[in-house]
Amino acid sequence: MQVSILVNGLRMFDWRKLFFVQKINLKKQLGDNEQQACLKKSAAITLTGVLVIFLLGLSSQSVAAESISNQITGAVTEENINQKPGSETVPAEVVGSENKSVATEINAIITTGQHPYLMLSNFINRTKDLEALYKIAGDQLLWLGNAGAEKNILEVLDLLDSASINGLNATNYDTQTLRQKLPAALTLAADNYQQLAFYDTAISLSLLRFLHDLHYGRVNPQGLNYKLKLREKKLMDLPMLIKDSLVNGTIKQLPLLVEPKLQQYQKLKSALTTYRLLAQKSTVFQLHSENSIKPGDNLRQTDELQRFLESVGDMPVEASSSASKSMHYTGKVVAGVKKFQLRHGINADGVIGKGTVAAINIPLSERVTQIELAMERLRWLPEFNPGPYIIVNIPAFQLWAFDDIDQFNAEIASMRVVVGKALKNETPVLMAEMRFLDFMPYWNVPYTIVKNEILPKLIRNSNYLAGENMELVTTFGNETKAVAFTGSSIESLKQGTLRVRQRPGKKNALGRVKFIFPNKEDVYLHDTPSQTLFSKSRRDFSHGCVRVANPEGLAEFALKNQWSKDTIQQALNNPKTQRVILKKSIPVLFFYITSFFDQNNNLVFYPDIYGHDSILLGMLRNPEDLSDQSIFASGNGESVAPVIK
Prior knowledge:
Layout: E1 4-7, E2 10-14, H1 16-19, H2 26-29, H3 32-58, H4 60-73, H5 78-81, H6 92-112, H7 127-136, H8 149-161, H9 175-186, H10 193-216, H11 238-248, H12 254-258, H13 263-281, H14 302-311, H15 331-342, H16 354-360, H17 364-379, E3 389-393, E4 398-404, E5 407-408, E6 414-420, E7 430-439, E8 443-444, H18 447-460, H19 464-467, E9 470-473, H20 489-495, E10 499-502, E11 513-516, E12 525-526, E13 540-542, E14 546-548, H21 551-558, H22 565-573, E15 578-591, E16 595-597, E17 603-605, H23 612-620
C-alpha cells in the first residue's frame, strides 16, 4: 500500500519509506535471535509511523504552511528526498539553528564595536549603521552564502578601490586585506559561523565607512573652528541604500547616490581626474628666473613654459615644430601666462614675477591635494535650500553672489574683498543669516582694538577721538547718546564700562553701508574708505570683518524686490543712519577653499594664507569614523525624514 501525504493537492513524498521497514529475506541474512530483535524494532517503528500519520492528518493546514516554508529554506521535500547522495538540503530545524548561530555572531561583533580584520578596528561611531543594516537583513549574512556572493563582494571592493575618484583614500577601507581573505571566505563551511560573520561584517563596515565619508566628510569641521551650520536631521539612510542596491543589483551606483550634488563638487571631481593624470604623466617643470620677465624680454625656457601652459589648459596645444626654439617671451605665451595668473589669484599682467614663478613651480601633485581638500570641505556643508546666497572664499579674497546655490548672479557674479590679516586677525569660517543693512552706520569699535590700538594713542593725545570722528558711549546702539570725555574715561575704557564708536562720515571705517548677519564672532560685510587695497593681489588687511569693493551692487542684490536702485543711492548719500530689515534673510557663508571653479568655469587655485590646508592634511593622516553626534543639530543623527533614493 502506498502511503502519501497530499498538501494543497501536491504529492509530497512516501512517508512509508520513513516509518515502515521494507521486507527483506531475514532467514538468509540473520540468525533466529537477530530476526526476532529485528521484528520487534519493526513493530515499534510501524506503530510510531501510524501515530505520526494520524497526527499529521489532524493538522493538514499546519503541514501545508510548513511545506511552503520548507520550500523557501530548503527543508525536506519529495524533490530533496530524490536528490543524489551527498546533496541533501539541510532540514528546516537545522537551518533555523544555523541562522540563529550566525545572528549570534553578528550581534556579538556589533556589541563589541571592534573588528579584527580592519585597520581601524574600533567602529563605535558606525555601530548604529551596522546594526540597522543587519536588522534589515534579519540578522543574517548579507554578502556570503548566496549565489551572487563573489560578484557582489568584488563589486564592493572595486568600488572601494576607486575611492580616489572622489578624493578619498582607498587604504582606509581595507580593500587589500579583504581581497586577500575573499577566496577563503567563499569556501568557509556553513557552520563556521564566526568567520562567516567576521568577513560579512567587514565588507559591510568598509562600505558604510566609504559612503559615510563620501557624503559627510572624514573630519568634524567644528574641530577646525569652522562654525558651519549643523544638519538639522539625517536625510540619507545608508543601510537602506546598501540593502536596496543588493536587491536591485546596483552596487556600482551607490557613490552617485551619496556624493554631494553641488556643481562645484562635480566640477572638482572631474578636475581631480585630469590633474591626477597630469601629475603622473607630465614632465616636472621648474621655471628659473631671478628677475621679473616682462612681455618682449628674452626667456631661455620659453618653449618649456609653453609646453607647461598647454598641459594645464592655459594655452591651446600646438603641433611640435622642427623650427628652432624661440627665446622671446611674446604673443601666445604671454596670453597663456595671463590666464595662468588669473587662475592662481595673481594680477594678470603677463609679468613673470616671484609670485608667478612660485605658482608655476608648485608640483601638480600638490594641486591634486588642493582639489581633494576642497572636495572634503564641500562635504561638510549642509543641504542648501532654494534661493539667494552670498559666499566669501577667504583665501580667494573674493565674494560670489548666487541667485541659487548653483547659479551665479549675472550682475555681481564676483567681487573683490579684503579679509582678516593672516596669523593676527583671521576671518572666521561661519554660516549665518543676513537680516538687515545699516546705511551710514556707526562703527562700534571692538574692545580688543580699543585696548591694543586706541588706548595707547588716546593716552598720548587726549584729542585723538575727536580727530578720528569717534565718541564715547555706555552701550552700543544707533539711538545711544554720546558721553563726554573726562579724567576717569581712560580707566573706564580699560575696564570696558565705556566704549568707543566712530560716527558716520567719510572717515568711518565701515564706509557707507554694512551688512549684518548676527553671529558669535561679531563679523560682517561692509564698505570701506580704503579703496586702494582692492588693487592688490593679496588682500588680508582687516581686523576680521570683510570689506567689499562694490557695496552698491551688494546692496542691490540684498534688497532685490524690496528697494529700487534710486532708493539705495539716496540712502548711501544721506548722512542719517538708516536700518533696513530684509523681508527674507539671505544665507551668508564665509568659507575657506583653495581650489574653486569661478563664474567663468575656470579652475582657480589660491594660496593657503591661513595654513588651513596643512592642518586638514594632518588630521586626514589619522583617519577615524566621524561621529553623527558632531554633524547633526539633534546630536543623535536619527532619521526623521524620507530616505533619499
